[in-house]
Design brief:
The structure holds two protein chains of two kinds. Chain A is an alpha+beta fold. Chain A has helices at about 25-30, 40-45, 55-70, 100-115, 125-135, 150-155, 165-175, 180-185, 190-195, 195-205, 235-255, 290-305, 340-355, 380-390; strands at about 10-15, 20-25, 50-55, 80, 85-90, 120, 140-145, 225-235, 260-270, 275-285, 315-325, 360-365, 375, 415-425, 435-440, 440-455, 470-475, 480-485, 500-505. Chain A contains 14 helices and 19 strands. Chain A has a six-stranded antiparallel barrel. In chain A, strands 8-11-9-10 form a four-stranded antiparallel β-sheet. Chain A is flat and about 105 Å long. Chain A starts with 9 loop residues before the first strand and ends with a strand. Residues about 1-5 and about 385-400 of chain A have low confidence and may be disordered. In chain B, a hairpin with a 2-residue loop joins strand 21 (about 1015-1025) and strand 22 (about 1030-1040). Chain B has 46 helices and 22 strands. By secondary structure, chain B is α/β, with parallel strands linked by helices. Chain B has a seven-stranded mixed β-sheet, sandwiched between helices. The chains are: A alpha+beta, B alpha/beta.
């Protein structure tokens, strides 16, 4: 029941088997005659310009979990009924909210305030509540089935209300059994023989003849450890010692689950109520107590006075925000864990200078020289390459960067961010420069090789203004070894090509 | 500047690699002044014929060859045959590579080349990074195998080191002792095509432009270059340029040399094929005319034999005769009939290839075989569609796979597939691409216009979108893959794989040559079309039933000609199920045309076609026929041409004759004109013909508008015209099927149902039509039905005949009832149906009995129960289902059947199943049988409809034109003919009959969701009654589908009744196909009367698996 109410017709589309079908429609779309399970093609034939979105069952599930989290305020015992239902066991909780009716009104009102469309029902059994909430024709948004009225409430419901599979519901319909009333007083054995034992069980559960436990959601294991001091601590050594101690506890907990920390938060509670929170990200999942201690030591050192202990801290709490699988790696007998050391180095440098300052250069799959390399934060990169490429460098289908046959250097050692215009004299149409003037110095070309012809990416070039470049490797009598290009193909693109110097080889 | 020939031209037949049509390459070569052009596509010669034709026209020397791409690391090698036998080596080499690969692929290694290396000139193209040692040893190895026939190709890569690289290649060439040769390695004809080449690369690599990176070429240099430019680029090695001429000179082979050789067909006892043909013709003539061959036929035979002898075509006729004889001599003979221009030949009639008696229509043998055209005749033969495969396999068997192969069809990008692929490449969202594709109806070749883009709420000026539209437009008509032609066979005397490479088809046991029918025709290679026709299967079944139940002799020839009752029936538009004339358009034409004799049927078949309709020939013809307009002729000369059709040109032959008589074309030119129409888009020669035709006619004193109409019609004919002879062949089937329907509606209905899927109507309409003709239809039942629908002894009297068909009443000779067969049950397997039939004996007395004796799975029994097939043992649908469901559990294998049978009823307590109301029964019938014998669903809603002032369809007949009415019914068919500018024809059905409605585009846009979405619809509008043809022109539509829920809560799932729901299918087709699915392709000549609709709709109209081969 997660359809946000909006006035414009909107549909959600997903894959159902081989076909694309509507998985949900909003009220406006329903009024147009669109309904879930309709083939998308049919819907589009009817309304070509329909606003639509892709179904994302994972996100739906995630949202449902979030709502369940929120419902914690009413009862800790909550079961999921995907894709769009929640089951709350409110036994013994209702009085806290002024009774069942009040609780129900409160819950529905608040959820609707958040933009959800909600239907709720309270009943003696899970089956009855679920069926009534989804299929009851009476009542506005909430139905409360009084104790003892369970059977009466179930009778008018369609059999789908018993949470049966579509197949069973259809099979029942074929022999004319459509409502709970049609089967509730029938002998059970023939039904079970024909439609499976689940039919009878669901019926009994809904009637309360059979127990149905709610499978509560298990909250994510929160890795939180803390230490309280009667006597506040203030010395850095004490703090670090405490961190190390807590880190030991954390490591034990994480090891049991085969996880490592990617984000660790340190909370230092000052006696006067202020809280310092210091977060550390790691490049690889981490359980190593010593390293963790070192990271916090570095961080505390950079923070300096910002982390003023004042009269001391009375609580030190260490929690793990993000975890990742961290299986033990078997190392060779004599190998040195280079990758691990590098990761640690990157972590330390990043902790000290900031992750944006520790970069790595990554080759890019493009012909355009100035875009051929980008610098990315080393910490994030290390993590990405680990998870996506199992530690390998990204590879390209087109082979090595050098596209030429000979062994000469292809790209200059230093590439200017902005190519510098030069004046040059050259043979038409595509000969190398004979001489050129760069930064007021006239260079006589001794040797030159080229052209390497690089055309720009035409699809980014909306106005058709970007010209093709002819690059030359040039060595001048004056000793410059440079990378020059002529911009624009003579006569084909321009009659006055301009020249630029793009980089230096030495 | 030195002369230069380009020897490495890749065309777009290197699919998704080359970016120019072969024709474009050739004309650019001429523009640039190249000495010659070598066409070398990747492991294929599919594009060389087109280049060859263009080369001939523009006087450019074309060297046909291929670029061999290896799987074993060998660098690419261009291979050009020195002579005819070199060509054979090349095609055999490619065939070998293709036979071991999947369809469309080719696996070659250097060993294969060494096996077929004789008489080939080879250019080795070094890879980007050269490894000198291995390259030299490869060259030496090749040189030893092919002395003086190996070159090392050098091209400019523009990677900065071209000078060094060239020097290095020169050294390697010297060391290996081969000559260096300059190549441009062109992928497109002009630099502007770089963008499109990038786009196709992305399509090939499934990438978007933004992330394709270095998969794309770095610059636009892969275009054809002028001799001047090449000379300049290779100034360091001028001999590499001059070498191109020496190379070209050594490629002496031309496709002209592929002179076609007919297979040897001379039967034993005859000296020559001509002798055999004469003798067979004579025998045939005596069988056809037992009372003596009429003089004019004798004359025609002599004339034809003389021309055939002159041209040496006798073996061809014998080949066709052989195939036809095979079909007829099968254990159960396969019905077959020639069509097309072959029906212009008296010999074909005598040989039994065609069935139209030449004494009934005027012959024009020259349309079929002409000494002037010097082209092989084209014979198309239809076989029963279900048995065509037998004929195909016979041909493979008889001639061998090295001598016979199917022609290819080049599948090209259409508007929709182009926009989809290009949209994806530019990274448009699926929604946008879908919406853009959605603006295209069917199989159009027209680009999306700016207006249409605006209509779906996008801005055509958006640069990215504009690029998408532009490149999609350029991509249209690019070949994307080869597929098999529907039935065109190439048969040769010498090995076929020495003429053209042969590859595996997607279908098992089929092999396909690389050239399509135009290519084959251009080279003068014989092709026989072996086609499948559903109606022949239906006729076969009808004749068998007639023989079994009505003492008919089971032969088509025994059906009397020119039976007036048949024409009467057709004149009333009573033609459901009849071949060709059953569509709405044909049905409304019949009462206007009122056919009286066989020739009228020929016209009827030909007139409802895009050619005559677009040429605006239909109404003048009708007016003249009805005597409203005087019959006159534009000139005395044309009178002879147009007399048969009252001065209005309707047939292909006539338009050609007009070009000859009225515009001064020669016969050859007229034929060229006809052909140009089919391909004019690509070649662009249409304007020349237009000026010549219209100019010629005006100068001979014909009015301009008549001239323009003629041209317009020829345009339409190009793709969708019927020659008279073809129409006559089809008219024969129209007559035969109509005769059976007229006199034996029971036989016709049963045969039609057994031949499904075919035709225009769903089983429900076929059954209903039979009932209205007084045929008793009996329900499917386990104790009476067979797999097929069959005839049972009837009561001897007809059921009441619907007043609509009162006039036909007297002609009906039906004495049997039709028992529906198990095949009508959705999802029931044929083996299950046949098992029941075989195990039945004296009948089944319970479900358990049936189950035990047939061993069917409970799921099959369930389907029978759902189809309500247990009535004879006293169980209705629900009771039967209830019982069947119990089998599954309590009757498992370990349960002793005898014991269970004895004890079950006592063990199980009774359960009360609610009875099923009749309305729901009907819905269930429709769901599981697609028809109901109990009632029409609308019956149950009549009271409700009446309260809404909705009138039954039968009441329309009595109302005057112009009256405003409201009708309602289930939607049977929606059609949007391409020739009708967006008008939608919607056929509704209620319990009293059918109503045809017309929805104009404006109205459609308002009620679009209803028109497309409703199962039950009401239409309000003005009534139009034109010679008894009634339409309601919609002004308002209302969706009444919700009323169906009154019948049953499940009625929402009622299967759509529309058998050929073109519009939705079109859209669904768009949604489902990125490449235009080859399965949806149909042969343009077999498209049914509704080819009224542009190919677009027509293609989508016929569902997959229902092709009319």
């Amino acid at each position: 029941m997660l359809a946000p109410a909006k006035s414009k017709p909107r549909i959600i589309v997903g894959e159902r088997g081989a076909a694309r079908r509507l998985t949900a429609v909003n009220d406006a779309a329903a009024r147009l005659g669109l309904e879930p399970d309709m083939p998308l093609a049919d819907a589009q034939a009817m309304y070509p310009a329909l606003e639509r979105a892709e179904a994302d069952p994972e996100q739906d599930r995630f949202l449902l979990e979030k709502i369940a989290d929120w419902c914690d305020r009413y009862t800790p015992l909550i079961g999921l009924h995907p894709p769009d239902g929640l089951i709350l066991d409110i036994s013994g909780c209702a009085h806290l909210f002024g009774g069942e009716t009040a609780l129900c009104r409160d819950l529905v009102g608040r959820l609707e305030g958040q933009g959800f469309k909600v239907r709720a029902a309270i009943a003696d059994t899970v089956g009855c509540a679920a069926g009534v909430a989804r299929f009851s024709q009476t009542g506005p948004e909430a139905d409360i089935v009084s104790p003892g009225a369970t059977k009466a409430a179930l009778m008018p419901l369609p059999l789908a209300g018993l949470r049966l599979s579509g197949r069973v519901v259809r099979a029942l319909a074929q022999v004319g059994l459509k409502r709970v009333a049609d089967i509730v007083d029938q002998p059970r054995a023939p039904l079970a023989a024909r439609f499976g034992i689940s039919l009878v069980r669901r019926l009994d559960q809904a009637l309360g003849d059979e127990d149905e436990p709610i499978a509560p959601r298990r909250p994510l294991p929160p890795y939180v450890v803390e230490r309280r001091f009667g006597d506040p601590i203030a010395l850095e050594a004490d703090i670090l010692g405490t961190i190390e101690h807590l880190a030991h506890e954390l490591a034990r907990m994480m090891e049991r689950r085969g996880e490592g920390a990617r984000l660790v938060q340190l909370a230092l509670f000052r006696t006067d109520g202020r809280v310092h929170r210091i977060a550390i990200g790691t490049a690889a999942p981490l359980r190593d107590t010593q390293r963790l201690r070192r990271l916090f030591a570095d961080k505390l050192a950079t923070l300096g006075d910002e982390c003023d202990p004042g009269f001391g801290f009375d609580v030190v709490r260490l929690s793990v925000g993000v975890t990742q699988r961290c299986d033990p790696v078997q190392t060779g007998l004599e190998s040195i864990n280079l990758a691990g050391d590098l990761a640690h180095l990157i972590d330390r440098l990043s902790a000290r200078f900031g992750p944006q300052r520790v970069m790595r250069l990554i080759p890019q799959d493009t012909h355009i020289p100035e875009f051929a390399i980008v610098a990315l934060p080393a910490q994030t990169l290390l993590h990405q390459t680990r998870s996506h490429h199992a530690g390998q460098e990204p590879t390209f289908a087109c082979g090595p960067l050098s596209g030429q046959d000979s062994l000469a250097p292809v790209r200059p050692i230093r590439l200017f961010e902005r190519p510098e215009p030069v004046e040059a004299v050259a043979e038409v149409p595509d000969g190398p420069p004979v001489r050129f003037r760069w930064r007021h110095v006239l260079h006589e070309v001794m040797t030159a090789e080229g052209p390497e012809r690089i055309a720009m990416e035409w699809w980014r070039d909306e106005a058709g203004q970007v010209l093709t470049r002819d690059y030359f490797r040039v060595e001048s009598r004056q000793g410059a070894r440079v990378w020059l290009y002529r911009e624009g193909l003579y006569e084909r693109e321009t009659i006055q090509p301009r020249w630029f110097l793009h980089g230096l080889f030495a | 500047m030195a002369p230069y020939a380009e020897l490495a031209a890749t065309t777009n037949f290197s699919f998704l690699c080359g970016a120019s049509h072969p024709e474009e390459m050739v004309s650019q070569a001429r523009e640039l002044g190249l000495e010659g052009l070598g066409i070398a596509d990747r492991n294929t010669v599919a594009g060389v014929v087109r280049a060859h034709i263009m080369g001939k026209e523009l006087a450019v020397k074309i060297a046909p060859g291929a670029r061999l791409v290896f799987t074993d690391g060998t660098p690419d090698i261009l291979a050009y045959p020195m002579n005819r036998s070199g060509w054979g080596h090349l095609t055999k080499l490619l065939t070998r590579g293709k036979w071991r690969a999947e369809k469309g692929d080719c696996i070659l290694t250097l060993v294969d080349l060494l096996d077929h290396i004789d008489e080939l000139n080879l250019i080795v193209l070094p890879p980007i990074q050269i490894e000198s040692g291995s390259l030299i040893s490869r060259l030496v190895q090749l040189k030893e195998a092919a002395p003086r026939a190996v070159w090392l190709g050098a091209s400019m890569l523009y990677r900065g080191d071209d000078g060094r690289r060239l020097a290095r290649l020169a050294t390697i060439a010297v060391e290996a002792g081969v000559a260096l040769i300059a190549v441009g390695d062109a992928l497109y004809h002009i630099p502007e095509r770089r963008a499109l080449q990038d786009v196709v690369t992305c399509i090939r690599e499934h990438r978007q432009l933004d992330d394709a990176g270095r998969r794309l070429h770095v610059n636009a240099e892969r275009h054809l270059k002028s001799p001047r430019e090449m000379t300049r680029l290779f100034r360091q090695a001028p001999q590499a340029i001059s070498e191109t001429l020496r190379f070209l000179d050594r490629c002496r082979f031309s496709l002209e040399e592929l002179k076609y050789e007919y297979p040897h067909e001379t039967p034993e006892g005859y000296a020559t094929a001509q002798d055999a043909l004469m003798a067979l013709t004579e025998t045939g003539a005596r069988t056809r005319y037992p009372d003596g061959v009429p003089a004019n036929i004798r004359h025609a035979l002599d004339h034809e034999l003389k021309i055939i002898a002159e041209l040496g075509y006798a073996p061809y006729f014998l080949t066709v005769h052989n195939i036809v004889r095979f079909a007829r001599s099968c254990e159960i003979p396969i019905l077959c009939q020639g069509r097309g221009s072959a029906a212009n030949s008296a010999i074909c009639y005598c040989l039994g290839i065609t069935e139209v008696d030449p004494s009934r229509i005027a012959l024009l043998f020259e349309r079929f075989v002409s000494a002037e055209r010097r082209e092989p005749p084209d014979i198309d033969i239809d076989f029963e569609h279900e048995r065509r495969e037998e004929v195909i396999q016979h041909i493979y068997r008889h001639y061998g796979r090295h001598h016979a192969g199917l022609a290819a069809t080049v599948i090209c990008y259409r508007s929709r597939s182009a926009i989809r692929e290009v949209g994806k490449v530019f990274g448009l969202s699926d929604d946008t691409v879908g919406a853009l594709a959605g603006t295209i109806w069917g199989w159009s070749n027209d680009a999306v216009t700016a207006d249409e883009v605006r209509r779906i709420g996008l801005d055509p000026a958006d640069p990215r979108l504009a690029s998408v539209l532009q490149y999609a437009r350029e991509l249209i008509d690019f070949p994307r893959h080869l597929s098999q032609h529907v039935g065109g066979f190439v048969i040769t005397r010498s090995r076929l794989d020495e003429v053209v490479p042969i590859e595996n088809a997607a279908m098992e046991d089929r092999t396909v040559v690389e050239w399509n029918k135009d290519d084959l025709e251009a080279l003068g290679i014989l092709k026989i079309d072996v086609l499948g026709l559903g109606m022949l299967s239906c006729l076969h079944r009808s004749l068998a039933l007639l023989a079994k139940h009505y003492q008919h002799d089971g032969n088509m020839a025994a059906i009397p000609a020119d039976d007036p009752a048949v024409y009467d029936m057709l004149s009333h538009g009573d033609s459901i199920g009849v071949f060709q004339v059953e569509s709405r358009a044909q049905m409304s034409m019949l009462p206007r045309l009122r056919p009286k004799e066989f020739y009228d049927l020929v016209i009827e078949v030909a007139i409802v076609r895009p050619g005559p309709i677009q040429g605006d020939m239909v109404h003048p013809y009708l007016r003249r026929r009805q005597g409203i307009e005087p019959i006159d002729y534009p000139s005395e000369n044309l009178k002879t041409v147009l007399k048969k059709t009252l001065g209005v040109p309707l047939f292909q032959e006539q338009t050609m004759r007009i070009a000859i008589v009225a515009a001064g074309f020669t016969a050859v030119e007229a034929d060229k004109l006809r052909r140009a129409m089919a391909t004019f888009k690509r070649v662009g020669t249409i304007k020349y013909f237009r000026d010549k035709l219209i100019g010629g006619m005006i100068s001979r004193g014909y009015p301009l508008d008549f001239a323009e109409r003629c041209f317009h019609q020829i345009e339409g004919f190009g793709e969708y015209g019927f020659p008279e002879s073809h129409a006559a062949s089809f008219a024969l089937l129209v007559y035969t099927s109509a005769w059976i329907k007229c006199h034996y509606p029971d036989v016709f209905a049963a045969a039609l149902l057994n031949s499904q899927p075919m035709g225009f109507y769903a089983p429900a309409q076929i059954v209903r039509d039979a009932q209205e003709h007084g045929v008793e239809i009996r329900a499917v039942d386990i104790n009476f039905s067979g797999w097929d629908n069959r005839l049972e002894d009837g009561l001897g009297t007809l059921e009441p005949v619907h007043p609509r068909h009162a006039k036909t009443r007297a002609a009906i000779r039906t004495t049997h009832a039709v028992r529906l067969g198990f095949r009508q049950i959705n999802g029931l397997a044929e083996t299950d149906g046949r098992t029941i039939e075989a195990a039945r004996d004296s009948g089944f007395d319970s479900i358990r009995d049936l189950w035990l004796r047939t061993g069917l799975f409970p799921t099959a029994l369930e389907r029978l129960a759902q189809a309500d097939a247990f009535r004879s043992i006293g169980l209705d649908r629900r009771e039967a289902l209830w019982a069947v469901r119990a089998l599954r559990r309590s009757g498992d294998k370990d349960d002793l059947p005898l014991f269970a049978r004895a004890t079950m009823p006592e063990l199980e307590p009774d359960i009360d199943l609610p009875p099923m109301p009749l309305g729901q029964q009907v819905v269930e019938d429709y769901r599981h049988l697609q028809l109901s014998l109990k009632a029409h669903p609308v019956v149950f809603l009549r009271a409700e409809l009446k309260s809404r002032r909705i009138i039954p369809h039968e009441a329309l007949v009595g109302l005057p034109s112009g009256e405003r009415v409201t009708v309602a019914g289930l939607v049977l068919v929606r059609q949007r003919p391409g020739s009708a500018s967006g008008v939608i024809f919607m056929t509704l059905e209620d319990e009293t009959g059918i109503a045809n409605t017309i929805v104009w585009p404006k109205t459609f846009e308002i009620f679009r969701p209803i028109v497309l979405g409703a199962r039950l619809i009401s239409v309000t509008g003005k009534l139009q009654n034109e010679s008894g043809v009634i339409h309601v022109v919609a002004e308002r539509c209302e969706d009444l589908s919700f009323l169906l829920h009154h019948l049953s809560a499940d009625a929402g799932c009622l299967p759509t009744l529309a058998h050929a729901d073109e519009i939705k299918r079109t859209i669904r087709h768009m949604a489902s196909s990125s490449p235009d699915h080859p399965g949806a392709r149909i042969d343009e000549r077999t498209v049914r009367a509704d080819d009224l609709m542009a190919a677009a709709i027509a293609n989508a109209a016929i569902p997959k698996g229902r092709n009319f081969h």
